[in-house]
Structures are given as structure tokens and as C-alpha cells.
TrEMBL record:
Classification via PANTHER family: BACTERICIDAL PERMEABILITY-INCREASING BPI PROTEIN-RELATED (PTHR10504), BPI FOLD-CONTAINING FAMILY C PROTEIN (PTHR10504:SF17)
Gene symbol of the encoding locus: Bpifc_0
Alphabetical keyword list: Antibiotic, Antimicrobial, Disulfide bond, Glycoprotein, Immunity, Innate immunity, Secreted, Signal
Localization in the cell: Secreted
UniProt superkingdom: Eukaryota
GO cellular component: a single term: extracellular space
Top-level taxonomy: Eukaryota, Metazoa, Chordata, Craniata, Vertebrata
Biological process (GO), any one: defense response to Gram-negative bacterium
Broad class of the protein's primary localization: secreted
SMART domains with a match to the protein in the record: BPI2
Job of this protein: The cytotoxic action of BPI is limited to many species of Gram-negative bacteria; this specificity may be explained by a strong affinity of the very basic N-terminal half for the negatively charged lipopolysaccharides that are unique to the Gram-negative bacterial outer envelope.
GO MF, any single term: lipid binding
Start and end residues of each Lipid-binding serum glycoprotein C-terminal domain: 50-217
Listed name of the protein: Bactericidal permeability-increasing protein
Gene3D superfamilies, A to Z: Bactericidal permeability-increasing protein, domain 2
Length: 220
């Protein structure tokens, strides 16, 4: 699929051939690239609704998304460093955090660029629901100040727990998804600037991320 994952789409059984249709039962298991250790999930059987007004029907099970989440987590794809240049583009600096967290202002009087390290600490849990699916995410975010000599100084690390819902719709022959943040919880894991309450930062991030639109993909 990409540098992180491979997919096994071999047939689970012989194709079932009927007069009006053919059923192809594919395994649909996603693995970390170079590692074919079986994922810790069991595929449950499911059926496609009996319809006949379209030429082709595709169905993706919860197992497919669960193994995808496991594969990307195992390959380290959810460990992301947001570099100084990207933070500068979005106007994120120690000065921004100082306006929210007074302890940062006391620790660093001079504004510095920042760098963020995001990490998933557990395998994201994906659950399918009617017309949408939800994702439970556990992770951490470490904030670094980038000093004039390009050295970095860790300011603080926060634990992150988030629950999101993604609803899919087809509009104008494009697959569209809307992402809604249902819950966001932050807790202070470690701080080099002293203890501080994260509730204000939590509220601001929740407001910013409340509703987002996933980029559309061509398809019908």
C-alpha cells in the first residue's frame, strides 16, 4: 500500500457463482511492511445486503480497518514530528503557549520557535457504526522550544485521549467525509516549566478541532 503497510487480499474460499451475481470473499488483512505476524483480531463473517440495482458492490469489514490500524501503529506511522518550519507556517511558537500557559512565559521570556512530537501510545480502536465509524485514539504530545543554536529544549509532555466520528457520503461523484471531534481529554505527563492546568488548552484545541472536513477522493 505504502512504505508502512502491505495488504493480503487473497481469496478465503472459492467464488460463489449464482445466476444474477458472483460473491468474492477476500481476506483483506493489512500487515506492517516486512512483518507478517498475524494481527490480534478475529475476522467476523458478514453479508452484503441483497440489492441488484448496481453493477458492483464493495464491502469493507471492521476487521479490515482494525488490522489497518494495527499495521500502521506497529510500523510507527502514527509517530509524527511537526518541524519548526511547519509550526512557523501556522504561527505556533512558545509565545502562543505563553499566552495560554503562564508557566511557559516565566520559563522562557524570549519567544522561540517550537517543534511538536506526536505519538500514538496504544493501537487506535476503530468501530463501524451506521453510516459512519468512530476512532478511539490514545497518544502523547511533547512540545520543544527550538533555541538559536538549533538545539531543542523540552517544555512539557501531555497525554491525549480523543474520540472522533467520521461520516462518509457521496456528493457529485466524490466520496466525502466529515470528521467530528466527540471528545478530547488532555493530562499533563511531564513538565520542565512547572505544573499547570491544561483545561484552557484543552478547551481551545476542542474548539479549533470541533468540525473538520476530510479531503475528498474521486470515486463513485
Amino acid at each position: 500500500i505504502d512504505d508502512f503497510t502491505k495488504v493480503d487480499y487473497s481469496l478465503n474460499s472459492l467464488p460463489a457463482v449464482f445466476q444474477p451475481f458472483i460473491d468474492l470473499n477476500l481476506k483483506g488483512t493489512v500487515y506492517p511492511a516486512g512483518n507478517y505476524t498475524g494481527p490480534p483480531y478475529v475476522a467476523a463473517p458478514f453479508t452484503i445486503p441483497d440489492q441488484s440495482d448496481s453493477m458492483l458492490y464493495l464491502a469493507f469489514s471492521e476487521y479490515f480497518f482494525q488490522t489497518s490500524s494495527f499495521a500502521y501503529y506497529s510500523a510507527g506511522a502514527f509517530n509524527i514530528t511537526i518541524a519548526e518550519e511547519t509550526c512557523n507556517y501556522f504561527n505556533i511558537s512558545s509565545e502562543i503557549f505563553s499566552s495560554i500557559i503562564p508557566e511557559v512565559a516565566k520559563y522562557s521570556v524570549t519567544p522561540y520557535p517550537v517543534m511538536l512530537k506526536l505519538m500514538a501510545t496504544e493501537i487506535p480502536i476503530i468501530s463501524l457504526e451506521q453510516d459512519s465509524f468512530t476512532a478511539e485514539i490514545q497518544g502523547s504530545m511533547e512540545v520543544f522550544a527550538v533555541l538559536p543554536d538549533s538545539a531543542t529544549q523540552s517544555l512539557f509532555t501531555m497525554n491525549i485521549a480523543a474520540n472522533t466520528s467520521i461520516a462518509l457520503n457521496i456528493f457529485d461523484q466524490k466520496l466525502m467525509g466529515s470528521l467530528c471531534l466527540n471528545r478530547l481529554q488532555l493530562s499533563l505527563a511531564h513538565s520542565n516549566v512547572g505544573f499547570f492546568e491544561v483545561s484552557l488548552l484543552e478547551n481551545i484545541l476542542s474548539y479549533i478541532l470541533q468540525t473538520e472536513v476530510i479531503p475528498s477522493a474521486n470515486g463513485k
